[in-house]
Design a protein that fits this description.
Length: 247
């Protein structure tokens, strides 16, 4: 059976693509990668063939009558959990070792599902004020909605990471929650310090740990090689650039 195909956008900007890509990588799900150019006519043939919403990411599994197309990042995560991995994406544990009657498993699964859904459906303040732009360090004037979102995100991080080691993911093992909050980590790296925002030590620690994740590192390094500038995703006063455009 052929590998699933994941259609993604520009790595410097596409936060939704990062979520799906990182999830598949972290759970060792082999896939082929099909990048497209966001907001560019060259992407239309691929999107018209595979993406009912015209958006990325899209996961395509199988061919002909066995073909399954999954769009929307949360749907991709749920499909991957059901059919593509032996691990439980909500806890990071092997499904064969999970005792579903165990209270710790139920608590962690429910918490993980809740914060993933919260990130997926809300937090528009930070999305609007801090679009993902990996190559840039930029100064903005964050809105009250953005500041409220950051406060909520820091509260989530603090609650998940209490009593855990300094190199821990949100639930100990890597879960879908870490994939869904990965773009937040990169947004904070781009805007927080330059905009005079002071992050809690736990937030700083977690952000650095996520940036050091080998799959995140691969995504970032590839993003820094991109040359296209998408004005729709550029905001704030650019303080500095990293990558090929810095030269």
């Amino acid at each position: 059976m052929s590998k699933p195909l994941l259609i993604i956008g520009n790595k410097n900007y596409s936060s939704w693509s990062l979520r799906a890509w990182l999830l598949l990588k972290a759970f060792k799900i082999e896939f082929e990668e099909q990048p497209i150019e966001l907001f560019d006519s060259s992407a239309l043939p691929i999107l018209n063939e595979h993406a009912p919403t015209g958006k990325v990411p899209v996961l395509v599994c199988g061919q002909d009558y066995q073909k399954v197309t999954v769009w929307d990042t949360l749907a991709i995560a749920i499909y991957a959990n059901s059919f593509l991995t032996d691990k439980d994406i909500w806890t990071g544990n092997l499904k064969s070792e999970v005792n579903k009657g165990d209270n710790r498993h139920r608590v962690d699964s429910a918490y993980c599902q809740s914060i993933v859904a919260e990130m997926h459906s809300g937090m528009t303040g930070i999305r609007n004020d801090m679009p993902m732009n990996i190559r840039a360090t930029a100064k903005i004037q964050p809105s009250s909605a953005c500041l409220a979102d950051i406060a909520r995100i820091e509260a989530i991080f603090a609650d998940c990471l209490k009593n855990r080691s300094s190199d821990s993911y949100l639930f100990g093992c890597f879960t879908v929650a870490d994939a869904f909050f990965a773009p937040v980590v990169l947004r904070l790296q781009t805007y927080a310090k330059a905009s005079g925002l002071t992050l809690q030590p736990t937030t700083q620690q977690y952000c650095q740990m996520m940036i050091n994740n080998p799959h995140m590192d691969t995504w970032i390094k590839t993003a820094l090689k991109e040359t296209r500038i998408i004005t729709e995703d550029e905001t704030g006063k650019i303080i500095s650039l990293t990558g090929v455009l810095a030269h």
